[in-house]
Specification:
Rossmann fold, 14 strands, Alpha-Beta Plaits, 18% strand, 3 domains
């Protein structure tokens, strides 16, 4: 039975979500929801993973975009549609627009990862790069929509889009009906609004938690009344939205139990862990649910928790950086700054200690000039890799015992 709050929030209903599921069936991938034994062991919870990064465009956005396009009449489609997106909504509209013969224009923020721009172009869409943020791209898209008589397809604050995104929940609960908690990334709120509608109608006892990047807590502020800035270079650009939707905010206030914030290092760790454990590539926004689970371990211990890998479109260079930074945080990789006398054989004595401890040297940087050290001294930065943090610390202790001053170079 639906809760009173749900009955009051009837802009989208379970029937709308179910109708959307029938409408898009066969045109989007029915992605699996699987129990992750390794993540379950690591967190103490039973962790069920929904692999929406396995969609053709590698993100759940196809569901809402397709539902919206299918509900347009032929005359509207013929004139064409326009959307503003950091990437995944863009690809979804472009891909399904091409399938249905609909002309598509996409306005994307200038910093959008190149992989998302290229993939959107590959579906035949006309790309307009404008502004530094989604909000600036959105304003330009609205201007162009009026100028060119195009229909705007909103990435989240649209009832048809919300209903389409809610189909994720129908599949998850069909595959894992005993879920107790759902962790859902939030940008503008379209996904969690659709999921909340379905989940709270089917089983109002499921705890529904939103997750936002700490740098962009717009929905969190809308719900709590707090005044926090939404700005910065987040790795989760897919949920970097400064202003949540009006419709989605109403649904979130009524149906979502709480919103959690996650830091950039927590998101990076989740991306790396998913690649190592699940052998799956996930973008920053897609890893937010796992980041929240890892950051709040005791809260979820012993419970059946569902997370959604909402997308997998991450720039390969950025992914490489994330993986290497995670090796640093785990102690398997380091840069050690070592002070020594600038004389023949000094560096060799250091390198011998690395050899004795079987710590692999990746690169050496030697600095004599740009330093405040005495002219007869120098320092070297050695990038190296070890088995684990304890292995590395053993080397550091030996270097210090031999009289070298050692300073690990830290990252955030």
């Amino acid at each position: 039975m639906a809760s009173p709050a749900l009955r009051q929030t009837s802009a989208v209903t379970l029937s709308d979500v179910q109708a959307a599921a029938r409408r898009i069936e066969g045109a989007v991938v029915r992605t699996p929801t699987q129990l992750s034994r390794t993540l379950s062991d690591a967190t103490g919870a039973s962790v069920y993973v929904k692999f929406e990064n396995l969609q053709f465009t590698a993100a759940y956005k196809e569901r809402g975009a397709l539902n919206r396009l299918l509900l347009m009449d032929e005359a509207v489609r013929a004139r064409g549609v326009i959307a503003a997106s950091a990437g995944n909504h863009a690809q979804a509209v472009a891909y399904h627009g091409a399938r249905l013969g609909v002309p598509v224009t996409i306005v994307m923020p200038i910093p959008t990862p190149s992989v998302k721009v290229m993939q959107t172009e590959s579906h035949g869409a006309t790309i307009v790069l404008h502004g530094e943020t989604f909000d600036e791209a959105y304003a330009e898209a609205m201007r162009l929509a009026a100028e060119r008589d195009l229909t705007f397809v909103h990435p989240f604050d649209d009832l048809d889009v919300i209903a389409g995104q809610g189909t994720v929940a129908l599949e998850m609960l069909a595959d894992a009906p005993d879920l107790e908690v759902l962790l859902v990334p939030i940008g503008g709120g379209g996904l969690i609004s659709g999921i909340a509608t379905a989940v709270k109608w089917i089983n109002p006892d499921i705890e529904l938690l939103g997750v936002q990047a700490q740098l962009y807590p717009s929905m969190y502020c809308s719900v709590t009344g707090k005044n926090l800035a939404s700005a910065g270079d987040t790795i989760a650009e897919g949920i970097a939205v400064k202003e949540p939707g009006r419709r989605t905010a109403e649904i979130v206030r009524a149906l979502v139990d709480e919103i959690l914030l996650v830091t950039e290092p927590e998101i990076e760790t989740a991306i790396s862990l998913l690649l190592q454990i699940e052998k799956t590539v996930v973008e920053g926004a897609g890893a937010a649910g796992l980041a929240a689970l890892l950051a709040n371990g005791e809260r979820f211990r012993g419970r059946k928790v569902g997370i959604i890998l909402t997308g997998g479109n991450i720039d390969t260079r950025l992914l490489a950086t994330v993986l290497l930074r995670d090796l640093v945080r785990s102690g398997r990789m380091a840069r050690l700054r070592i002070q020594l006398q600038d004389r023949p054989g000094a560096m060799l004595s250091v390198v011998k200690l690395f050899d004795q401890h079987q710590v692999n040297i990746i690169e050496i940087f030697h600095q004599r000039i740009f330093t405040a050290l005495p002219a007869k001294d120098t320092f070297i930065d050695i990038e190296c890799e070890a088995r684990d943090a304890e292995h590395l610390q053993g080397l550091v202790r030996k270097l210090e015992q031999e009289g070298f001053s050692v300073h690990p170079v830290e990252i955030g």
